[in-house]
Design goal:
Length: 317
Amino acid sequence: MPEPSPSAPDAPLGVDRGTLRLALVVGGLVLAVLLGFGLGRLNPPPTAASGAAGAAPSSAGHTHPPGTGAHSHDGADVTQAGGADAGGLSVSSGGYTLTPSTVRFVPGRAGELRFQIRDARRRPATRFAIVHEKPMHLIVVRRDLTGFQHLHPTMAADGTWSVPLTLPEAGVWRMYADFTVVADDGRQTAATLGADLAAPGPYAPRPLPAPATSTTVDGFTVGYDGTPRAGETLPVRFTVRGATGPAPLEPYLGSYGHLVAVREGDLGYLHVHPGPQAEPGGVTFWMTAPGPGRYRMFLDFQVGGVVRTAAFTLTVD
């Protein structure tokens, strides 16, 4: 029986394999596009309303002190290492590392604290911006938030900072180096780095005093008004009164007061920015508490050429 001719109407159709592969590829691409569109409809990209990763949380009550904007020194933009979080929680931040060479002290005996600030290449930083009249502010406080000291080290040509230091009692103490370093290209980075210091001996921590809005220091009555809340920048107004009325506050570190706060537990550090003096004996600070908890506020103020420190326990909700 003769075989049917290839041109006969009932002959089976031959399928070219190259054409089949092309059809499968095109069909797969169309299917992928359709699936991607559908998934995109089900999972829209994050927006401010849905909370994009890394976006700063909004704060309805957030304000800035009058006349201030982005953090800057003498017109230069400054990067704030750590953002709005408490500082001093680690030895490294923003590409810089605190490297103390002395961490052990004999309680009650005068010693010397020496340290460097090193960059990502382990080179000692030697250029620092003047902030609040000093290139370096050093805060030292015991872990139970007693024994507060505010010191100003001096720097050698090799970038080594040094300052006399006496730790009056045994225990673990925290040092905070508060500075703004200037990089080779002129960029400025503000940071607060922290490290522990040890004073060996029997350690008897004191309980944190109860919250109060008033205290006395050397015959001065110091009080404050304001209710800081977590995540908001709000004013805290301090007043200092002597025996005859408002104390004649004198400029100290570029303002009529200097305020830091340290959080109980993790010892997170806040450097609080002052505003102008509105009236004799008073000074307002703008405080941003990064989270709830109990804080110890330390206010340095100067009268008659003498700097005194008033301390307060503050509960932030």
